[in-house]
Amino acid sequence: MADYIWFAESGSIRIFYKKDAKEITEWLGMNQVFFMSITSFFKRTSSRLIIHTLEPVQLWGIHHNDFIALADARHEIEKLLRKMVTGSLILSQERMESLQFETAMQRFQRLMQSSPDVIQRVPVQYIASFLGITKETLSRIRSMHLLSIY
After folding, report:
1. Torsion over CA of 23, 94, 115 and 134, rounded to 10 degrees?
2. Of 59, 20, 29, residue with least CA distance to 126
3. Which residues of 61-75 are buried (b: 16+ CB within 10 A; e: fewer)?
4. pTM of this prediction?
5. Which residues of 18-27 are buried (b: 16+ CB within 10 A; e: fewer)?
6. pLDDT digits over 92-131, tens only?
7. Of 59, 62, 61, 40, residue with least CA distance to 49
8. Strands (E), the chain
9. In this structure, are strands 12-19 and 22-30 parallel, antiparallel, or unpaired?
10. How far is residue 37's CA from residue 48's CA, in Å, rounded to a whole number?
């Protein structure tokens, strides 16, 4: 059960799940990001999601009970929670649409626009998994991307 909302002040994190003995990267976050398993946190149930730090991180966390009490007492915390949940829903929908309607190259380009340092900070197998492609396809796309830059 997810008991905490986390904030990574620095470092990189991935959230993944296992399916058929394969790790599927669902989310990558770097520096100044909130993260949690939303369903587990709010429904108070176990989660299939696994949080993995990819480099040293400076983390801050707040326990579910403390956060809910704070949100009940302070309107600005409740507003922050709404922004976090709304942002997460938007990211989830954009990711689903990206996987359904964009090519692998388009997904890679979108990732490079939103998180250009991901290539230096995240291992290739996790980036490929996040993009829904193989490591070999990612290698070809990176080569084509580099050629288009020069």
Report:
1. 40
2. 29
3. ebebeebbeebeeee
4. 0.89
5. eeeeeeebbb
6. 999 999 999 999 999 999 999 999 999 899 999 999 999 9
7. 40
8. 4-10, 12-19, 22-30, 33-35, 50-53, 58-63
9. antiparallel
10. 9
